[in-house]
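In this section we walk through a basic example: taking a raw amino acid sequence and producing a predicted 3D structure, encoded as discrete structure tokens. The instruction is simple. Fold the sequence below.
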Amino acid sequence: MFKEIYKRSLDGKITKNDAMALLKKDPFELFRTADAVRQELVGDTVSYVVNRNMNFTDICIGTCKFCAFRNTENYRLTTDQLLAKVAEAKRYGATEVCIQGGLLPDMYLKDYVAMLESIKEKYEIDIHAFSPMEVFHMSKVSGVSVAHSLKALKEAGLGSMPGTAAEILVDDIRRKICPGKLTTMQWVDVVTKAHKTGIPTTATIMYGHIETWKDRIDHIFIQRDIQRKTHGFTEFVPLTFMCKNNPLGITVMKNGSMGASGLDDLRMYALARLIFGKDLINVQASWVKLGPKLAQVALHCGANDLGGTLMEERISKTAGATSGECMSPEELRALIRDAERTPRQRTTLYQDVRPVLKVAARRAKN
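The resulting token sequence is shown next.
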């Protein structure tokens, strides 16, 4: 069966029935098959990005039951504070800043645009910012269309978007875990419009709470369909649910669970690799969510990217993640080499970072 699955994956012909059937098979054969597809598509190179996370506010009118970050400190960064963090990231060698925040009732499209423009005016750095929910929210409160917001954000310097707020793209589950959030079709609409505007995004899934494997597989196939239409996803990032300090986690733990098992985490990476095949060749293992050692194992189960240095990570930490907020480039390279893979620093869009840094250095001299 696994030889046929290997071929079907590379041909883009894995079906939902195939995926469900694989869950009943030997997991280690599943991992080996996903690893063989990874080897065929991307070789032994594992990429990482030097970046900084910046959550500009934790104030949020949202009602997501999995969030432990919302309204814990009630802070909101000023422009000067935000720019100071970007300056620190540049000194650290970052090529990217990732910016997300809570949903503020008094923050409009013009404010998000001003944030981007203030950074671009002073620094040459990739800006990876604003989830589909944030774009949906800023459009709604500003009385403009999503397409209008995306065009304005791109013109202000937005390079790419995190494909978060996806959680599980199954509305029955969304109504239970994030009733105030955009629907599946609204998420698809924002992401599809972003791709058409020339703004690439990541694709994510948050799993290991009240959803089923069928829900997870349905979710991945929705994202595969988007990718086949737009080719706008840069990577797929499975995010295992952190169950501490949030109402959804209390429900999960009352049912005798602590979220997805390590084995199921690895199944998720393997299935994603096989389902996406050539359609989306980058699968990211989150060292923050998995921990460094399981992230290394994921590199042998289909993953080929370890994400970023982060420098500052608040959201997973408040929900119980214990793997730290920052991992230096040296540590990431060592982690990759110890997993018997070859490290490669990349840009946000998976280009080799060395030519980009050389160009930036020349511009700085001039």
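Looking at the output, two observations stand out. The chain has one domain: 14-365. The chain has a mean pLDDT of 93. In the next section we compare this with other chains.
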